[in-house]
Design brief:
By secondary structure, this protein is an alpha+beta fold. It has helices at about 10-20, 35-45, 75-80, and strands spanning about 20-25, 55. This is beta-N-acetylhexosaminidase.
């Protein structure tokens, strides 16, 4: 596993060759909004035939990877509401 924050040629060629269905980002992949947008754009460019399903480990509450934007409560808080 790589803590990829920026696309490189090796990963781009693997995405294109094996036609991944999707990518999940974790905390080590997300540094800033601008960097994350660039990374996800680069993933999509590496998969020109079929768009990738992109996801992030963003459960809300304690598990929050994206520092900007709207923060939603975690599952425990939603269940208690």
């Amino acid at each position: 596993p790589q803590a990829l924050t920026k696309m490189n040629d090796e990963v781009a060629s693997l995405v294109k060759k094996y036609q991944f269905g999707g990518i999940i980002l974790f905390a080590e992949n997300v540094k800033t909004t601008k960097q994350t947008v660039q990374l996800t754009d680069d993933y999509q460019k590496a998969s020109p035939k079929i768009p990738l399903m992109l996801s992030i480990d963003q459960e809300g509450g304690i598990v929050t990877r994206l520092g900007e934007g709207t923060n939603f409560p975690g599952n425990m808080a939603l269940g208690a509401a």
